[in-house]
Amino acid sequence: MYHIISMRDFSRDEIDLILNKAKQLEPIAKGKKSDLLLGKILATLFFEPSTRTRLSFETAMKRLGGEVIDLGALEVSSVAKGETLADTIRVVANYADAIVLRHPREGAARMAAEYSRVPIINAGDGAGHHPTQTLLDLYTIMRESSLSGLRIALVGDLKYGRTVHSLAYALSLYHADMTLVSPKQLEMPDVIKKDLKKQGAVIRETTKLEDVMGDIDVLYITRIQKERFPDPAEYLKVAGSYRVTEELIKKASDSLIIMHPLPRMDEIAPAVDRTKYARYFEQSFYGVPVRMALLVMAMETT
Amino acid sequence: MYHIISMRDFSRDEIDLILNKAKQLEPIAKGKKSDLLLGKILATLFFEPSTRTRLSFETAMKRLGGEVIDLGALEVSSVAKGETLADTIRVVANYADAIVLRHPREGAARMAAEYSRVPIINAGDGAGHHPTQTLLDLYTIMRESSLSGLRIALVGDLKYGRTVHSLAYALSLYHADMTLVSPKQLEMPDVIKKDLKKQGAVIRETTKLEDVMGDIDVLYITRIQKERFPDPAEYLKVAGSYRVTEELIKKASDSLIIMHPLPRMDEIAPAVDRTKYARYFEQSFYGVPVRMALLVMAMETT
Amino acid sequence: MYHIISMRDFSRDEIDLILNKAKQLEPIAKGKKSDLLLGKILATLFFEPSTRTRLSFETAMKRLGGEVIDLGALEVSSVAKGETLADTIRVVANYADAIVLRHPREGAARMAAEYSRVPIINAGDGAGHHPTQTLLDLYTIMRESSLSGLRIALVGDLKYGRTVHSLAYALSLYHADMTLVSPKQLEMPDVIKKDLKKQGAVIRETTKLEDVMGDIDVLYITRIQKERFPDPAEYLKVAGSYRVTEELIKKASDSLIIMHPLPRMDEIAPAVDRTKYARYFEQSFYGVPVRMALLVMAMETT
Known about the structure:
The structure is a homotrimer. By secondary structure, chain A is α/β, with parallel strands linked by helices. Chain A folds into two domains: 7-129 and 287-300, Rossmann fold, CATH 3.40.50.1370; 132-284, Aspartate/ornithine carbamoyltransferase (Rossmann fold, 3-Layer(aba) Sandwich). Chain A is 38% helix and 15% strand. In chain A, the strands form two sheets. In chain A, strands 7-6-5-8-9 form a five-stranded parallel sheet. Chain A has a four-stranded parallel sheet with strand order 2-1-3-4, with helices on both faces. In chain A, helix 5 packs across helix 6, helix 5 (131-144) crosses helix 10 (280-300) and helix 6 runs parallel beside helix 7 (190-199). The interface between A and B is medium-sized, with 24 and 25 residues. Chains A, B, C: One of its GO terms (biological process) is 'de novo' pyrimidine nucleobase biosynthetic process.
């Protein structure tokens, strides 16, 4: 069995295996018929909403010929009647061949895996992990740029941003050259930076995005999410710190690609969408082949 | 590519093509197995609820062997986080082979089509268009009566009723003889009447439904929808103006059929359901073959 | 046509037929591919939430190769606009090959059957019937113990508990020896007990669960549901009256199995899950083959 809980559980070889499997399945994500998972059922359990992630998994499963059952809105389920997560998981594992779980509590996916007789795929557990987002980010870099010799700027909230911590860790396995761009208050925590360096990453820090535009292959910008801040006042000081505009990308190297996990608010001006640098919609598409790869690997080994 | 935005985009020949395609697909709507759209995915994006329209599309897609993904309730999606419609459309177009969109804002479907690399099917945009409802109304008349030499009464709110404006326009292409039956306050706007006449329709107006019962082939009655009125007081003056009863249909010509887009409130007495005139449940069924035809045409030409 | 409304509509022979059909289909519930209901559509109409029952039906249908359409949350549907149940049923029957209905009003399923041209399967109608729960309970006993010569204790709220009334009736057809264990205030109504005896059941009553542990084959314990009590004060007096613990099951006969319709609150201690007596998760799984049997029988005879 093959639970997918955290990027920390994967070696670089295992990551490469997943990315290559995704590449092999990409034509199916684009519409080629498949019955690889015909007769299989995936259950989606979203204890907090994430329409995009849910739809991406659902698309992946259905393109592979499989079926999806969705627990639906929380407030109407047995969970609302006070059922434990352990019981919910045991019941749903009776219906499905794999379970995608999103939960607001850190560690929920790991705990669910202990009670499930079918694979658990973590689709985000609070401030914890969200490995499928990281894998699709890596896949986007592999497909649209290169994971080898990569120079990347990670921009925005590097303190609370779960997406970015997980991605930085994975990129350190590829010895990436990372420039961390954030307001002083939102710098990446020291403990994480130390860990990245230990893995083999080169780390640089700055508060000025414009200074690095000519020296990077990938610009990865994220939304500064109000809901991650313990104190709303702290949020207001830094909201809107960075914005990718037509003006800014004049300084970009020719091969630069711009990524964003979406949804975006005003981090990227709409005018940038039409430039050759934009890859955030491709990135969102790549969620499908990556999740296909995980679904196939999870259910093949059941 | 084949967006379906407004009845105004179709010539009479194109409408006939859709209706004939629907007729050809009708056995599948009744349960005959099909894999015409096997491997295809339809996304349903309902920015305002319309269970009936959504279920009808979902049924059409699944009867054809295809799959459906649903964005689900708005308030839990990225849209709630402030994402633009353009971004939502671009992301969902990465997952699906066609998108059914319902939106409260007039013009939303046309705008969505500009950003989508897959066909957009408009399932209603506010006070704007709802072409699949009009097409199923035409199909019902074709199957249960006749589009040629048609004498029809359109009854109810002819001022705000979007359904009726769109149907009247389409019927004018068939040179229908239309009797407009409404309270004075809810008469069809002059600009629309002028346009209908220009297209070839014969137009008559009255406030008394009973006077026309013997001279029509189709009685099309609609609900007077409170939510379309700018002023609730105006609504109260006209609510319940017309009601089809057993008494009323005694005056009907033998071949009359009664249509209603459903849901009905008290516009048609339940006793009428058992008469030979009732066709509103058949009409709701015909939504399936008509939407099948549109889905097949949209995805075949992708 | 084959509506499934109430256990009272089935003879013991018909029940045995369903249970044997379920046994035959059980491998499909466990993942064996099937296309028995390929091309068929099941509509789920839940006028009150019951995620577990809905998912179980959905799983059953999809494992059999069929498709599901769901009316979704009530408050957003035509029902909210005031449509009658009769109209909703007539419209949905145009889309689907069978309808699963859950409704808060007793008698709703019977009424729906009058208006539907496709089979109605009752998934619970208020204080009325919930035959598929009873059938899965019987199936669990058949698979994990024995329906013949059965000694069973029914424990908890025997006054308001719909599940238990329906199960007791069905067990009386198998001449079961039943021990009714409840607080005085929640005893089974006399009229039901009389009826059970007339059918051939042996009935005993006690308030003390520990006294019967050595003399039963099946312990069936239910949640005391606050929402079934007309008076909350009455509920508080009896909440938590019975609890199955490791201590208690020391007195159990070797072949005892413990059942619970789930979700559980604190009626069964988590430590009991790991014992050989626990069967409540198997019981929840058995909902799938039983519902498969009903779906196949309903749609084969359409």
